[in-house]
Amino acid sequence: TFQDGGEEVEEGAVYNVTLKKVQIQQAANKGARWLGGEGDQLPPEHTVRQYETSKIRAIKAGTLEKLVENLLTAFGDADFSYISIFLSTYRAFASTRAVLELLLDRFGNLETSSHGEVATLNSFESEVVLRAEIASVLRAWLDQCSEDFREPPDHTCLLKLLDYLKNNMPNSDMESKVQNLLKQFQNQEVETVDGFCSTSSSDLVDGEELEISSPEEFSSFQDHVVAEQLTYMDVMLFKKVVPYHCLGSIWSQRDKKENRNLAPTVRATITQFNTVTKCVVSTILGTKELKVQQRAKIIEKWIHIAHECRILKNFSSLRAIISALQSNSIYRLKTTWMCVSKDILLMYEELSEIFSDHDNYLTSRELLMKEATSKFANLDSSEKENQKKSQKRLQLQKNKGVMQGTVPYLGTFLTDLIMLDTALQDYVEGGLINFEKRRREFEVIAQIKLLQSSCNSYCLIPDQKFIQWFRSQRHLTEEESYRLSREVEAAADTNILSPKSQKSMVKRISTLFLGTDVITPPKEHPPKSSPLGGSSGESTDSASVSSCEFNHSETEDVCVTPISSPEDPLKKGSIGSDKGSGSNKGSISDKGSGSDKCSIFDKASGPDSGLVSGSTTCSTSKVLPVYNRQNGGACIIRVSMDGINDSVYKSILITNQDRIPDVTQRALLKHNLEPDAVEDYELVQVISEDKELVFPRDANVFYGMNSHVNFDFILRKKA
């Protein structure tokens, strides 16, 4: 049993104390045999019950010096996960050089005193223990986070570490390991972005060398081959993701000019996601001469490929394909969708449901937890024919005797980490680093690491013919795909938004991942007619956010902007019915965050909070601030800049003590603008399309805001 032991405060550190009571069974030698025990063991009815209480100290906050010192004492305090948590998150508040210098120079200096006194036996033993503790930390660092030492071309930290090992641990295994790592770094070509996408994205710059492939060429690839090759590429990129690149404090800084190369491993996975999405759109719309039935066959093929990705537990390409099929230019092809068979539409509907935004994407979260480390996918289909096909394909996979890993949709983790970074303070009273925040972040990082480890189970061989085809595709721009969509399908509804008016919905990398930067829904009302039979008050052109990476200053192109899933034909009426209403719907990020929603921020963060096996139920304890809900005197709002990327929001934590100048200053900082210009701006809450709430200069934002609408604000220069 555990009991809260309160806090212990030292100079430069605060510790949480937990008392653990453990039952110990002991038997006195005397009389044990007389009572019928064998050897020294008493029979159960005569067992003597004794209890032992041990103290667990977990650092809650501290200076950098104390946090590094705690690396050497954590095992003694029974805080066994501390080293892994620190190594996975320290880049949010310190550099590799700073931590290494503290560890080696302050705690690792094992020389005798300047007076030349002979070390006593006790001090010698202490040095041996200290050397062993430092060696343990360094070994864990090299095993878990070797990328921290990649500093081309000099690799100064690695050389410093090597020098320390030569002096204090000569000819050790660790010295050899560091030498090999240094050679590996020096021999490797320095790459800004690793993997397939570096070649793919560079090739796509020159459109003259690329062409839209013929439908016959695409059809020549078997469905399972395409899925396996997409999975192969996704696995190679996901395994290279450096987990600390996903931290909210790091990922949220990528928009700054000086950070163009920040988090390259995450950018690479997103580029691959967008490439898959654009490839789907190009193959469907690229050839105008196709008949409706032929185009429907291509859609059916991509749905089959998505299903194969599901069998392979590749949720990244699965979501990319679904997002493309939900894009405006594909979704509006109502005549084409009418030619898609009923069974295939059912399969598509079930695959789309995986990524439903209901309850903070609860379905996809639960599925990922369930299958993260399972050997094979767990396929349940409500349609008998699809279930038979699924089980047959799954049995073929099992017969091969090769286990499968799991490739996640990385955006879920980036969302959680950015929201945690927004909701929790970096420093607490006294200027101490808030390490409780890092423990919460590690819960997400640990899931990423576990899934990366599971990817080693894949046994996929690259098909150069397909990879070459995939790389050589010319991708359509948003305008091109929309124009072609209008040409191949009779434009029955002239009210569908054009891509130019939807540009406010497309933004760079993070829109896909619903992080601190979120896209606003378009101000225009969606069309009242539904291309796929939407009804019950839902508009099929409702805007949602997908995997889009777009920045006018970068070469990375616009990706498609998906809309609501065309799941209606079988649920809500016949295809092509005209019953949908024009209700203006928000983006994905506007959903799943209401007062009745459950998110990761509602869960308690106890010592046993899970990796991927934790409970998904809501807990009322230790509720963190979330978007669109006021909790415990705090909440998260989204602020955009009027006239400057006004479609880009930044998430900001406010409390019931914050007034207009405080919030304005934080918003300017988040948007990389001068915080001194507070007096030049006014803060406005968007109530509806034609209503705004303008705050007086010294108003309390928390109490003054309208809590019954979205917490969306605009920072506008005063007239």
TrEMBL record:
Residues annotated as domain Ras-GEF? 222-491
Gene3D superfamilies for this protein: Phosphatidylinositol 3-kinase Catalytic Subunit, Chain A, domain 1, Ras guanine-nucleotide exchange factors catalytic domain, Son of sevenless (SoS) protein Chain: S domain 1
Keyword Protease in the entry? The reply is: no
Q: Where is the composition biased (Low complexity)?
A: 530-539, 572-598
**Boundaries of every Ras-associating domain copy:** 633-719
**CDD domains cross-referenced by the UniProt entry:** RasGEF, REM
Please name one Pfam family that this protein belongs to: RA
Gene Ontology molecular function: any one: guanyl-nucleotide exchange factor activity
GO cellular component assignments: plasma membrane
Q: Which domain of life is it from?
A: Eukaryota
Q: Where do the record's region annotations for Disordered lie?
A: 517-600
Q: Does the keyword Membrane apply?
A: no
Name of protein: RGL1 protein
